[in-house]
Amino acid sequence: MDFKNIEVAEEPTVVITTSESTGEDFSLKMGISSILGTRKNQQDSVFGQVDGKTAIAIVCDGMGGMNGGELASQTAVKILAEDYYKKQPDSDIPSFFREEAYKMNDAVRGLEDKDGNPLNGGTTVVATITLDNRLYWLSIGDSKIYLIREGNIVAVNREHNFRMRLDERLKSGAITKEQYKKEEGQAEALISFLGIEDLTLMDINEKPFILQENDIVLLCSDGLYKCLPDEEIAKLVFYEEPDMGRAAKRLTDIVLKKGKRSQDNTSLVIMQYNKY
C-alpha cells in the first residue's frame, strides 16, 4: 500500500442513494446510506453528488438536546453544499474549506429556538471535494475520512477529542502514564466541533491527495467506526465494489445486524475512482 501526500426501537429510517458520472478517461461512483439506529432522532446529515469530473461529499454528526444537533448538522451541510455550487471553488479548495468552516461555525452558534433562546447545538463535519483525480478534505470533530486502496484502509484525519490532547501530552513528557490513565475517562470528549466558541482546530490538506485507479474514499459518522473495526469495513466494501450503492447499504446493514442496544445514528458517503 502506498498512500502519499497524506497530512495527517422503531424500524430504523434508511436513506440510500447512488450517483455516478464519467470524465474523459475516468469515472466517479458514489453511494450514500444513513440509518437512525436505536436513537429517537436522526442528528446526522449527509450530502453527496457527482457532477462530471467533480464530486462533493459531506457528513455531519449533530449533538445537543432537543433538536439542537439535528438543526446544527442540517445547517452546516446546507451552507457548505450551497456555497460549493455557488462559488465553484476549483482554484483554491483549501481556502474555500477554511472560509466555510468559520461560516458554518458562526451559523451553528447562532441557532435559536422559537423563543429566541440559543439552541446550544453542535456538529462534527467531514467533507471532501474531488477534482479529476485530486482529493481535498476538511475535518472538524470525530467523524472520519478513510482511504481504501487494494483492500488496505487508513484514516486521513484525526479524532479531535481529549484523547488526542492526552496522547500529545504523554508523548512530550508533560504527563506520566499514570496521569494519562486517570484522565482517560474524558477521552471521548470533543475539543473541536462546529458551534464551539473559538474554532481553531481543523484538518485540511493543503496539497491534493492524488487518487489512483480503484481508490475508494469513505466519509462516516462515528456510528460506523465505533461499531465495525477498520479492517472489517474495508473487507465489506471489497465484497461489493465497484457498486458503491451496494457497498454503502452493506455497511449500514451490518451495523444494524450487530444489534447494539444503543446504536448511534450512522451515515456515510462512499466513492470510488476508476480509470478506463
State the gist of this model.
This protein is α+β, with helices and mostly antiparallel strands and 276 residues long.
Fold topology:
Blueprint: E1 14-22, E2 26-35, E3 44-51, E4 54-63, H1 68-87, H2 93-109, E5 122-123, E6 125-131, E7 134-140, E8 144-149, E9 152-155, H3 162-172, H4 177-183, E10 203-204, E11 209-210, E12 216-220, H5 222-225, H6 230-240, H7 244-258, E13 266-275
Helix pairs in contact: 1-2, 6-7
Give a quick set of tags describing it.
276 residues; alpha+beta; 6-stranded antiparallel sheet
Distance between the termini: 21 Å
Number of strands: 13
Helical amount: 25-40%
Globally, the shape reads globular
Count helical runs.
7
Radius of gyration: 18 Å
Describe this structure in words.
By secondary structure, the protein is α+β, with helices and mostly antiparallel strands. It is globular. A hairpin with a 2-residue loop joins strand 3 and strand 4. Residues 1-15 have low confidence and may be disordered. The strands form two sheets. Strands 3, 4, 5, 6, 7, 10 and 11 form a seven-stranded antiparallel β-sheet that branches. The protein has a six-stranded antiparallel β-sheet with strand order 1-2-13-12-8-9. It is built from seven helices and 13 strands. Helix 1 (68-87) runs antiparallel to helix 2 and helix 6 (230-240) packs across helix 7 (244-258). The longest helix is centred in the first third of the chain and has 20 residues, at 68-87.
